[in-house]
């Protein structure tokens, strides 16, 4: 699946921990999907997750 994220508004996840270098960014406003990337490699790959899969994933993170 190709999703154009060239104009995406990226933000660092609240679950990222900068001192350890675990920095995940997500892009908001892309209909139906959640683009995810490594903030240390912004020119690298982007993982596209369906919005329906993202919601339970985040719920599990909040539960732990």
How would you describe what is shown here?
With 64 residues, this protein is an alpha+beta fold. The protein is 20% helix and 30% strand. It has 1 helix and 4 strands, in the order ββββα. Strand 3 and strand 4 form a beta hairpin. The radius of gyration is 12 Å and the shape is flat. The N and C termini lie far apart (31 Å). The mean pLDDT is 84.
List the keywords.
64 residues; alpha+beta; 1 helix; 20% helix; 30% strand
Query: Between the first and last Cα atoms, what is the distance in angstroms?
Result: 31 Å
- Put simply, the count of helices is 1
The fraction of residues in strands falls at 25-35%
Basic shape:
flat
Helix content: 10-25%
Biggest sheet: strands, sense, closure? 4 strands, antiparallel
SSE pattern: EEEEH
- What is the residue-averaged pLDDT? 84
Which blocks of ≥5 consecutive residues have pLDDT under 50? none
The oligomerization state is: single chain
Beta strands, count: 4
Helix/strand class: alpha+beta
Strand order of the largest sheet: 1-2-3-4
Q: What is the C-alpha radius of gyration, as a whole number of Å?
A: 12 Å
Topology:
Blueprint lengths: L8 E4 L11 E5 L4 E6 L8 E4 H13 L1
Antiparallel strand pairs: 1-2, 2-3, 3-4
Write a short abstract of this structure.
This protein is α+β, with helices and mostly antiparallel strands and 64 residues long.
């Amino acid at each position: 699946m190709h999703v154009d994220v060239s104009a995406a508004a990226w933000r660092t996840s609240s679950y990222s921990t900068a001192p350890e270098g675990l920095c995940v960014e997500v892009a908001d406003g892309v209909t139906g999907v959640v683009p995810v990337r490594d903030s240390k490699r912004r020119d690298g790959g982007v993982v596209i997750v369906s919005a329906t899969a993202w919601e339970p994933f985040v719920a599990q993170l909040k539960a732990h």
